[in-house]
Design brief:
Structural class: alpha/beta
Helix content: 25-40%
CATH topology: Double Stranded RNA Binding Domain
Distance between the termini: 26 Å
Strand content: 35-45%
Number of strands: 7
Length: 150
């Protein structure tokens, strides 16, 4: 989390609901990620969320979500450690973006151990937080900001 403007002007950002491009389909994950991105924008002073007319228009597509079992209990064969991994494609357009547009791929990883009482929901919350921060870091790249600074 950052509380500075990185010596650059605050940028307004338009954000649409994350597009879910997962196959096989995993409906609903896009809403959790969208909500978390908006929460992170509220905490991050580099951007201000607007409904239209933003300096930067950000489109996010969730393209990969994996939840493989890493370790199984030898006695019961039940999962004892599970990995979470998500990948999103971030596209930004606007006059503050060099060349008018930019596209980046970001990935976050987390995990949990049901055998130790850790919950999937807590691990997903951490995963979405980390992925959202990477998305915002892409959207607030210093090169983008410098090109639009007046």
């Amino acid at each position: 989390m950052t509380s500075s403007l990185d010596d650059m002007p605050e940028r307004s950002v338009e954000l649409t609901t994350v597009e879910n491009q997962l196959f096989p389909p995993r409906p609903g994950l896009e809403y959790d990620l969208t909500r978390r991105i908006k929460d992170e924008i509220a905490l991050d002073r580099r951007l201000r969320l607007v409904s239209e007319g933003g300096d930067v228009r950000v489109r996010v597509s969730l393209v990969r979500f994996e939840e493989p079992t890493i370790v199984k209990d030898l006695k019961t064969a039940a999962p004892s450690e599970i990995l979470l991994r998500a990948t999103a494609v971030v596209e930004a357009r606007g006059y503050m973006v060099p060349g008018g547009s930019l596209r980046r791929r970001v990935t976050a990883t987390d995990g949990y151990a049901p055998s130790l009482g850790e919950s999937r929901e807590e691990a997903l919350a951490r995963l979405w937080r980390d992925l959202s921060r990477q998305i915002l870091d892409a959207a607030t790249d210093r090169e983008w900001a410098a090109s639009g600074a007046k």
